[in-house]
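Revision sheet: structure tokens.
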Amino acid sequence: MTQQINKKHYKAALYCRLSKDDDDRIGDSSSIQTQKSLLERYCRENGYLIHDFYVDDGYSGLNFDRPDFQRMIDDIEDGKINCVITKDLSRLGRNYILTGQYTEIYFPSKNVRYIAISDDVDSDKGESDIAPFRNILNEMVARDTSKKVKSAMRVKFNNGEFIAPIAPIGYIIDPNRKNKLMIDEETAWIPKKIFELAAHGKGAGGIARLLTAEKVPPPTWYRYNRYGERASKFENQPEEIRWQWSFVSVRGILDNEIYIGNTVHYKCQKVSFKSKKNRKRKAMEWDT
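Predicted:
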């Protein structure tokens, strides 16, 4: 006679996720703390042992390349957990194909029980007829959000607003007017010098060599000092590396229409709202 498994034998992974878009849309109803409280109470009421919380705050549900989700998968592979619990299916993911692969193929193959509390999904109760439709609806919500974000961005583009997180050298983002640039008095002389040299017939390679010889700080050095970017390039490196200009850096400044007052957008485009990959667009397709 097969012995019934006691609920307390389940070592549960409590997975929480919230993206920026989710946060804007649903507010506190699915905040990370709300999810944690719900999952912890569920385990306490049902006698499941909590192995650990796995939290991806600020990560999209359209792909599964999330740090704590991957840590959870590693723990499944190591046999540390045999139950995964989420508030609902959308917290696991919003890509209906990949979400289904985990709930219908991967978790069962690893003898991992999956529970989505609010959606009343429990793999121990057998396959859920409604789960695939919920996964499709979750993806439709993500698709709709993506369209709204693109539409809002296009309005900003048409208004000539600057949306990149870091301004090109010679400019800074106006602290009083979001998405507006203002001249950076500390670095404005650098692009001016580059354009003056180019106007006198000097090529990008020659300009790069001259700037390096004169120890003119390149954009990467300013970004390192101001924002801590590219730390690995400068920390514990010889001093001369901070003055190194390249042909590509100079060419990028000379080709950047921001220096003649234009904003250029849509140089790249995502291949799909589900993917992080971009494809380069032809110049005739850019928005200026």
